[in-house]
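Illustration 12: Homoserine kinase.
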Amino acid sequence: SNIKIFCPATIANLNCGFDVMGLCLETIGDEMIFRKSPTKGIKITKITGAELPFEIDKNVAGVAALAILNNYEKDFNPVSFGIEIEIHKKIKTGSGIGSSAASAAGAVFGVNEILGKPYSKSELVHFAMKGEAIASGSEHADNVTPCLLGGFTLVRGYDPLDIIKIESPNELFAVVLHPHIEIKTSDARAVLEPMISLKNAIKQWGNLGGLIAGLYMKDYEIISRSLEDVIIEPLRKGLIPNFDKVKNSALKNGALGAGISGAGPSIFALCKGSSIAKNVAKAMENTYLKTNIPFDIHIS
Ligand code: HSE
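Figure caption equivalent — predicted structure in token form:
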């Protein structure tokens, strides 16, 4: 029998939480289908929506699926069947909303279901990171965690992996504008500086603490003040045409905060309530229409 799953897009970083904060988007995502087959091993049988390799060791979903399957055989029993995977991409690669994470998280989730759910969600995050690593060149979990757990998530620590699901206020809406240019995560990480000033570190961890507190207190003012990034955004925003203009139009029209989604180029805004989100989306859209770069925009 088939298992068909939805693999949601995600916003990583959320300005003040580089490599640790993430948010799951409800309305954008890929689809994957899994089925048992008599031939042992993992096989990708169909890919639509993107040009991706079918070779297991070159495909994000393939690597992640193999990581969990190999581990299962080590931890439990040899598996007597194989697993076939179909990948139907809706999230564009290099868009900044966790395309590779959706494939990696989807693959481990699907394989875990086929195996009879031997692993917990946090163990799945660990396997999904293996797939994410081949796409971005670094093993970060800030997209795969919200993709698997939903809502807001915090990666409190990487060694050992310690993930926490964060309470989220239900009036929050995310607007995501995706300019149709591609930014590789590895390129967006190459512009970062390895050292940061104590002054900026203090601002950033104050904001991250504030964001978490604001989410738990459902205090939109605190959330708004905390959605600031003094470390990563200044170095990356030059990679995204018209970033400042779009961000300012979102803020002027009532967004709580706005910034780079993941490694970019997508630009996100968080809003309180759907009518503000609609106004913000309109304003961001109008701003981007003045450029000649095609884009799409979503509210989630
Ligand atoms: N935290 C990562 C980054 C997410 O910003 O580089 C991108 O995949």
